[in-house]
Amino acid sequence: MKHEICRVADIPRTGSMVVPFFGREVHVWRSSERIRAAANACLHFGGPLDCKDGAFVCQWHGAKFDMESGERLEGPAPKGSRLMFLSTRVEDGALNYFWGE
Ligand code: FES
Predict the structure, then answer these.
(1) Domains identified in the chain, total number
(2) Ligand 1 centroid to 99 CA: how many Å?
(3) Which residues constitute the domain of residue 14?
(4) pLDDT digit string (tens) for the chain, length 101 residues
(5) Domain containing residue 20: CATH number
(6) Residue 43 in contact with ligand 1 by CB distance below 6 A
(7) Which residues contact 26 (CB under 8 A, 6 or more apart)?
């Protein structure tokens, strides 16, 4: 099954954009040659993330995550934790979330 997240043309060249997703939010961004999408939820207590200086930074207690790998860089989120990436594919100019395949 699939669900359209956004149009690829709408994704900014730098930084990220926040898109509604089943009553929650995801960040969508361009990482090297790939387009990535991850839940806008910190791995500490679920706080929202800002895209700031090339990383995601939690608004609540400052945990920082790498935009390429999603790995925690610093802050109170568990060591070794990683942002929740969505499984996505580009089709007909749209970024889609796929599940159940
Ligand atoms: S909820 Fe993100 S650092 Fe605490």
Answers:
(1) 1
(2) 28
(3) 2-98
(4) 999 999 999 999 999 999 999 999 999 999 988 999 999 999 999 999 999 999 999 999 999 999 999 999 999 999 999 999 999 999 999 999 999 97
(5) 2.102.10.10
(6) no
(7) 5, 18, 19, 37, 38, 39, 40, 86
